[in-house]
Amino acid sequence: MAPRKLDPITGRLLPIEGKSDLMRRVEARLGRTLEQDYLEFYMTEGHSQRELAKRWGVNRHLVFERTMRGNRRCWVDWLRLPRRDEKDVPDRKRAEASRCSLPGCNEADHLDSAHWIAAASGGPTGWNLVRLCPNHHRALDRGDPEVAKAVEKVALYQAVQSVLQDTKLAEPQKIETLHYVVRSVLARKADL
After folding, report:
1. Which residues contact 187 (CB under 8 A, 6 or more apart)?
2. Does one domain contain both 97 and 54?
């Protein structure tokens, strides 16, 4: 990387022109420009900041944080990308996120993040968390077999989806990770 230039008047570092090496590596892995991916995945499809940063394989703050130390700019500002208000998220995605995960339940008020594998047993966050209404959450915690079976399916779906979407993993790693995660979900254990 070329050395950064200094402002002759103030002596401060001038902003870097073009894209950084890390940005170019992310683009090479994605097979498209960051601008294209941002506009489609984040702005149009309505995925979250965390999902976009995970897709790109970088820290969310690097992409979105407005105030960074050392007068650095986040990637959104650096690339002059549009910002999105949460009210701009497609209604379908917002509605899905605010409903109980169990099929047939339309409860949308006061949802809980229930652990399929209990946190006390070392259950991870992410795919292991299932959005449930309070009634289904209590039923799961009490061992209701019908609710447990339905939550198992949702947790399994989320786990598989998260592994398949992980851009950092190569194909052999995905197969091994899928095998481990599926066995964990079905055995309801955090560590096999």
Report:
1. none
2. no
